[in-house]
Design goal:
Structural class: alpha+beta
Strand content: 25-35%
Oligomer: single chain
Number of strands: 17
Helix content: 25-40%
Strand order of the largest sheet: 6-7-8-5-1-4-3-2-9
Length: 385
């Protein structure tokens, strides 16, 4: 392992448990409850995520369930719930969101034991209200939800479902479908990355620290995440149990337009850049997703000439990883394997990361150079570099 990387890894792992301890306990979060995307055509988007990513049908709400202004399809794969929502008229706030941003993440919902307390704790510390606590009921029990605003038009909704036994939420019915392709092995959301404007990273890192009780797990500056042409800076914020991790990116000055600037231009503001989903067998997952039409970033062939020297012995066959474009990185806790899709819509905005952790708790710093070169190659093809 290179000396510079070893130093970085040591710094990262030093006192990592203390970092988690710094996250305050006034907002205990059990995990990600669901992620809601506003999309132009939820029925077709659902078909894509089922076919390409291996999600299964779970629940539905729309005209048939008494909803007159929007339709939502809920997909599930292991612990991941994805909600795809489409407006039914041009006056809808969902339509306004899509007109400005295109398809993208609107809601990052957090599973809590007490939604009212979560709302009170965060709003008393300065969070802007999205909606006050509401109790939603049906024959299966009740759910309490409340929402706060975060960067751009992204929101967090606190979901308390301890008194609910329904399929998803009140107002939804079971979505029966004859078409449910096999899973691709996705397990849970590992982290979600937000892109914000230049000069806003510290503001939103402070928001997660002061308002939500998160701790700064690691910081990357423009020397860590840079190529000859572009750079960015990032702070990774985590809650106390480490189940919720939100890296916050902002652009850094470079010779050309960075990936964060491209995102901000086409999304027309801050938003969720990518969703990282975990798997226990990345070779199987990526092999399946490639067969189903998912497009991934190309990793320069020279990357694999030196990666073994950097990461040491791993269980996987490096030739297979190279054939699939899967990258590897190591920290003192172990290693990880990761790969990134191309944007999953026509605007170069939202994409997915597939990650398998073999002990590592870091974010693939050793892969940043190759990753950025791949992204810059795509930007050059789009004429946006």
């Amino acid at each position: 392992m290179e000396t510079a990387n070893l130093k970085s890894v040591t710094n990262y792992n030093y006192g990592i448990e203390k970092i988690f301890d710094k996250a305050q306990d006034f907002l205990p979060i059990n995990g990600t409850d669901y992620v809601e995307l506003y999309v132009g055509n939820a029925k077709q988007a659902a078909h894509y995520y089922k076919t390409a990513f291996g999600f299964q049908s779970l629940a539905y709400a729309g005209l048939e369930t008494g909803i007159r202004d929007q339709v939502s399809y809920v997909l599930i794969q292991d612990k991941i719930r994805l909600v795809l929502t489409t407006p039914l008229n041009s006056e809808s706030h969902v339509a306004d969101h899509i007109k400005k941003h295109g398809d993208g993440v609107k809601v990052i919902a957090l599973w809590v034991d007490d939604a009212r307390k979560a709302f009170e704790e965060t709003t008393s510390r300065g969070a802007e209200v999205y909606f006050e606590p509401v109790v939603e009921k049906d024959e299966h029990g009740e759910v309490v939800r409340a929402g706060i605003r975060t960067y751009g038009e992204t929101v967090h909704i606190f979901v308390e479902r301890k008194n609910y036994r329904g399929i998803f939420l009140p107002g939804f019915e079971k979505w029966e479908s004859d078409y449910n392709p096999p899973s691709t092995g996705l397990k849970y959301i590992d982290h979600m990355v937000g892109n914000v404007e230049l000069g806003s990273m510290n503001k939103w890192a402070a928001f997660y620290a002061d308002v939500m009780g998160f701790a700064n797990l690691i910081t990357f500056d423009d020397k860590d995440i840079a190529t000859e042409y572009t750079a960015l800076m990032s702070k990774v914020m985590t809650n106390g149990n480490g189940r919720i991790k939100f890296p916050i990116n902002e652009p850094a000055k470079g010779l050309k337009k960075s990936q964060v600037e491209e995102y901000l231009d086409f999304y027309e503001g801050p938003g969720c850049q990518h969703i990282a989903v975990a798997t226990d067998d990345i070779v199987f997952t990526i092999s399946e997703m490639k067969k189903r039409g998912v497009e991934f970033l190309y990793v320069p062939g020279k990357y694999y000439d030196t990666v073994q020297n950097r990461v040491g012995v791993i269980a996987e066959d490096m030739d297979i990883l190279k054939s699939l474009g899967i990258m590897v990185d190591r920290d003192e806790e172990g290693y990880l394997l990761q790969i990134f899709t191309k944007p999953v819509e026509d605007r170069p905005t939202l994409f997915f990361e597939i990650i398998q952790r073999k002990g590592a708790r870091s974010f693939g710093k050793g892969n940043f150079q190759a990753l950025f070169e791949s992204i810059e190659a795509e930007q050059a093809r789009r004429g946006t570099l």
